[in-house]
Design brief:
single chain; mainly beta; seven-stranded mixed β-sheet
């Protein structure tokens, strides 16, 4: 089995910063694309940013210039550095990864979510 464990969420004031982490572990042969999504109550889960195993990144327009996604392939970990946070960034942030398991089957996995609240 494969698990994604997120950390780093919390309460921050507008204009502040947070860094989210997500580590994949378990029966892993390789990890392809990794990404971050966010969701507010009653809304769909939206893309924040993705990163390929070679480091190519993609961002939602609203996050460009404020958020930076990165990864450590040796640790199967993806990060999201969030700067200049706004109240509208408040959401549950979910990690996502396309994993090739040791049985060579490719599956998409999700983390449990971490709450980010931007408020004064």
């Amino acid at each position: 089995q494969v698990q994604l464990v997120e950390s780093g969420g919390g309460l921050v004031q507008p204009g502040g910063s947070l860094r989210l982490s997500c580590a994949a572990s378990g029966s892993i042969f390789a990890v392809n694309d990794m990404g971050w999504y966010r969701q507010t109550p009653g809304e769909q889960r939206d893309l924040v940013a993705t990163i390929t195993s070679s480091g190519r990144t993609n961002y939602a327009d609203s996050e460009k210039g404020r958020f930076t996604i990165s990864r450590d392939n040796a640790k199967n970990t993806v990060y999201l550095q969030m700067n200049s946070l706004k109240p509208e960034d408040t959401a549950v942030y979910y990690c996502n990864a396309r994993v090739i398991r040791r049985d060579f089957r490719e599956r998409t996995y999700w983390g449990q979510g971490t709450q980010v609240t931007v408020s004064s």
